[in-house]
Specification:
- By secondary structure, the chain is an alpha+beta fold.
- The chain contains four helices and six strands, in the order ββααββββαα.
- The strands form two sheets. Strands 3-4-5-6 form a four-stranded antiparallel beta sheet.
- It starts with a strand and ends in a 6-residue tail after the last helix.
């Protein structure tokens, strides 16, 4: 099975060019935000992946990915076909995650629990 490699504009590249792109970590990072709400810290990052994450409904490769992470987990929350869509998706993710964390922290305060316990429940909780 062969792997297709891409530039950020969606054009295919050779494996040598893909290797150069993959090693340019800073160049592949589109945006990164740190969201702090109460004692909870979450990092939201959007990256150019170089490889196709799966074709979109329009048949274009998904080359951009937004990931949300904290000390205990990370989750892929968005995949995009273009840099512009990835930038919009990143901004929407920051807004959504910030809002959800504020709600969780506020609920935790009302319940008298630690915010981190709300975001990362203990096993069996």
């Amino acid at each position: 099975m062969s792997v297709d490699w891409y530039r950020s504009d969606g054009e295919r590249v050779t494996s040598d060019e893909a290797q150069r792109l993959l090693l340019d970590v800073r160049g592949r990072l589109l945006a990164q935000d740190v969201v702090r709400v109460g004692g909870v810290v979450v990092v939201i990052s959007t990256w150019f992946t170089v490889t196709d994450l799966g074709f979109a409904a329009n048949g274009r490769p998904l080359l951009w990915q937004t990931i949300v992470s904290d000390l205990a987990m990370h989750a892929d929350i968005g995949r995009y076909t273009t840099r512009e869509k990835a930038a919009r998706g990143h901004a929407e993710a920051v807004e959504m995650i910030t809002e959800r964390l504020r709600d969780l922290v506020a609920r935790a305060a009302l319940d008298g629990t630690r915010p981190s316990a709300v975001f990362h429940p203990e096993p069996g909780a």
